[in-house]
Design a protein that fits this description.
2 domains; flat; 93 residues; mainly alpha
Length: 93
């Protein structure tokens, strides 16, 4: 393992500062992910996220139903081109 760490450090010396920041961010993510995935706190956060997501979905569905009731089918349907990247950014080169 020490040899691997030495090889990584050696290669880090040849990277520009911007790339070093990316490496640090990635290492931070890996260490955070490993700690959280093994803790009970991560489980409770996942459960809370799922509950909040389900609540959000229920609110969004309710709002969509209310909107549909208000417009009563008088909303024009957008073409595939209108919602495509080319259609959205056609005025920008």
């Amino acid at each position: 393992m020490e040899l691997l760490i030495e090889e990584i450090v050696h290669k880090l010396h040849s990277l520009p500062e911007a790339k070093l920041q990316e490496v640090l961010d990635f290492v931070d993510f890996l260490t955070w992910h490993r700690k959280d995935s093994t803790s009970k706190q991560a489980e409770s956060q996942n459960e809370r996220f799922i509950k909040e997501y389900e609540e959000f979905e229920a609110i969004a569905d309710n709002l969509a139903d209310q909107f549909e009731a208000c417009v009563r089918g008088n909303v024009p349907i957008l073409s595939d081109y209108a919602v495509s990247r080319a259609g959205i950014y056609e005025e920008h080169p």
